[in-house]
Amino acid sequence: MTEQNDKSFLEFIKSEQGSGVILIGCVVISLVIANSSVYTGFQNLLSSSFGFESAAIHLKYSLLNWINDGLMAIFFFLIGLEIKNEIIGGHLSNFKIAAVPMFAAIGGAVVPALIFFMFNHSTATARGWAIPMATDIAFALGVLALLGKLAPPALKVLLSTLAVVDDLLAIVIIAIFYSTTLHWLYLAIGLGIFLFLLLINKLGVKHPVFYILPGMVLWYFIHHSGVHATIAGVLTAFTIPVSSKKGPVLEKLAHKLHTPVNYIIMPLFALANTNIHLEAGMAQNVMGILSLGIILGLVFGKPIGVMLFAWLTVKLKIGSLPEQISWGHITGMGLLSGIGFTMSIFISFLSFGNSAHDTEAKFAILIASVIAGVAGFVYLKRVLAVNNKSRH
User: Fold this and answer.
1) Domain extent at residue 235
2) 276 in a structural domain
3) Which helix (H) or strand (E) holds 77?
4) 3-class secondary-structure state, position 322
5) What's the domain count of the chain?
6) Is residue 319 one of the residues assigned to a domain?
7) How does 136-158 read in b/e, with b if 16+ C-beta sit within 10 Å?
8) Residue 247 CA, distance from chain mean position
């Protein structure tokens, strides 16, 4: 009996559902640490710097930066591989299907921004209009993973596409409206490296190492350009060849990355970024215009925008839903997209710096993300259970 239980536990841990549970567990642990006596020590650990630095090369950053800009670039690299694989021969190979999450992402960015603007225009907090626009792809996929085999593969692909487009929109917005300085020389060098990777792909170079090594250099220049470094992961992924004479290249590389991403990178990301220190007076600010703009934008604006633009895309015959995907799935996807978290927290810091507004915004983002995550999970579990019963 013990051996059977051990075997079941190992199978659970190795499953996507297991990785989702580990991720949520890390969120809880991080929140506990942030509100305990070890909070200061944990903050000092995250802010401690390591790496290499010289007159010409700067690669010395805090542990938090290495996690958010370095390790998360690998996460985005994996997402880019999966999306490219789906575009080449999967659920997104048809433009009409790919169009749905792409336009849904635009709607999921525009509507929350409008809701925030309604509450905060002409005030000291108006600069935070982009806070509820972002979707946290790591946590959204983590919640979806909790549904295990109930969730059809196409739903994960749609949510991944929506979240990546959403994050790319956020990155563009940060670059245009929030970046203090853009280094155009670094951007130009980064573009040159990306074009080089496209060229060697065209010339038939197949081994991944010839893409990953220049991709690391691409990350360096994107990071120093003032644009969020994780975009380098997506750009590099899009240049990886699909296959070679020895078999699939892209799919095999993605398979190898799943375990380290799901069980190392995402948990570390959760531990490092959920350490919100709850302070006195936070609860009183929930009904303030800043908090309401964020909470209503993420919890209601996101699903409304996603549903509206997805529906318009299908109605205008620009796109169509893939097989096994219903409007109930799209609604659940919209709810999960309200998990703003890390990118929202990042934009909050860019908007307000280390101020009382930033603290209030972070607490509102935490509340909204929890509501969106729970609502999306409960709703999708019910929809998927009903769908599975109707098939049998």
Assistant:
1) 15-391
2) yes
3) helix 72-89
4) coil
5) 1
6) yes
7) bbbbbbbbbbbbeebbbebbbbb
8) 30
